[in-house]
Design a protein that fits this description.
InterPro entries: FRHB/FDHB/HCAR-like. By secondary structure, the protein is an all-alpha fold. The protein has 7 helices and no strands. The radius of gyration is 15 Å and the shape is flat. The mean pLDDT is 88.
């Protein structure tokens, strides 16, 4: 669970939409990317653990995209299947950074609507 929430809170698209951080102009150097890919592939989740991480990450990212698009947690949840809402709620309840990210996105959307 921690890996999925950490990935979402550092995702450049999510961060840029929330207004809470600057998105780097360019990515990391290729050599560093290759080193990180090697380390992650040898130490990261595998098999079912990777599948769960990937699904959770994409559900969270989709929720934050819908939140940014519609500016309402209820509308975002209405556009997602119930099982996805349950997973998102579990993460929001257990991870303070995700709650802060949700608040920042809602604040940013409210500012843009003014």
């Amino acid at each position: 669970e921690k890996l999925a929430s950490q990935t979402v809170t550092s995702d450049s698209i999510i961060v840029s939409r929330s207004g809470i951080g600057a998105v780097p102009e360019q990515g990391m150097p290729a050599w560093l990317g290759n080193v990180m890919a090697f380390v992650i592939s040898n130490t990261g989740p595998k098999g079912i653990a990777f599948a769960r991480y990937s699904i959770d990450y994409h559900l969270l990212r989709n929720y934050f995209y819908l939140l940014d698009l519609h500016g309402s947690p209820q509308i975002a949840k209405d556009k997602m299947p119930q099982y996805a809402c349950n997973i998102v709620q579990q993460y929001l309840k257990s991870d303070k950074k995700l709650m802060e990210l949700q608040g920042a996105i809602l604040e940013e959307v409210a500012t843009l609507k003014l």
